[in-house]
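QA checklist item 7 of 12: single-chain prediction sanity check.
[x] sequence parsed
[x] length recorded as 134
[x] structure emitted
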Amino acid sequence: MPVTAKIAQRMIAAAEKKAEEIGVPMVIAVVDQGGNLVAQLRQDDALLVSIDLSRNKAYTAVAVKMTTAILGSVSQPGGELYGIHAADGGRIVIFGGGLPIEEGGKVVGAIGVSGGSVEQDTACAEAGLAAYTE
């Protein structure tokens, strides 16, 4: 199933609810399997830098077909993907908050969240991802 606007909005609503629960304003982005933006929300007072970061986290997760946290762990100095953060015009993000959306073993899109700590961003992204199949 493609990531439609309706699905993206449902995912964003779930991530937004989690952000409100933890009290941290976030920017939430959902992209399709080509890394194209389907929907994005900036909560009031969310960091401006999080606009690009959330979109790029989602883009990264779909482009490399893994979470941005896993990519971060394999792209440290000495890691097999060291230097990947400089690829694709610098759009690749190597810290948590970007999760691929998988269906039937295939990556069909991704969600990216930015605005808090990596742990907070990831928690909100996980809440959004859980809403994909609702």
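[x] summary fact logged: Residues 8 and 30 are 6 Å apart (CA to CA).
[ ] second reviewer sign-off
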